[in-house]
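User: Show me a protein chain along with its predicted structure.
Assistant: Here is one chain, sequence first, then structure tokens.
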Amino acid sequence: MISLNFLEMVMTILDNAQEDHISFSQINQWLGCQKQYWLQRVMKQEPVDVSSALIVGTAYHTAVEMFYKARMARDKPVSHMELISVFERVILEDEGKQVINWGRSNRDKEIEKADGVFQAFLDEEQENEVIAVEKMFRLDIEGLPPVIGRVDLVEQDKSGAIVIIDFKSAATKPSVSSDIHVPGDVDSSHQMTLYQMWGKQNWPEQDIKLRMDYLIKSVRNPVFLPIKTTRSEEQEKQLVVLMKSVYEQIQMSKAGVINAVPVRSWKCNGCGHRVNCNIGINTAA
């Protein structure tokens, strides 16, 4: 049984919390590995290197962002070569700023993959109207500081519905369930649930649709795969409970009531904080 004194301590910690906001990336990082959160966000330790997956993902996002900003402004369409040029520039700039952990890949291999990926992306017919690109948002939830985040793309389809889209770069196609392209991670993504909550708050009179657009990085079979998904009110309620729990855990860890726990996973070898973590770096990939 939890003592009354302990509960009073927890409430005092939360009442005294200094954060004026919380981001979904904070929630997600804590859920992934509390120790990584602690080392990066509380101890402010610089990583020894940065995973190439993060750098390459940023390069794809930057190129696609340029494409949709041009569409929104009704400018000249962005060409295949322009997408590749931006992709390469982002990687080169990051290589000049930090050490990149390439693992089994390298810059040239990723550029070769991107060539096919962007062609597959450009071959997809674009029908919806672009209304926002890299849109910052704020979501107010009772019991939490303001939740802030950023949406990759917001469109409006022919029916007038708002379509909220997140871009993902991946090495392989997502697994599918039944006979349709609906992988479990798409249907259970907390991020998309949060986006729906924001969409309903921001466009209360319009239907909200969700989509995750996968850029499949493959030299032999590059694919652009848009996947529609939905969320229930029950999923929204479950996410609010989860976020409040995580926020409480973060505050208690900062107050020294609980310790941030490291999580052993295949991601450890690519973590820039692995040398400062008591799990060690000899983790099976």
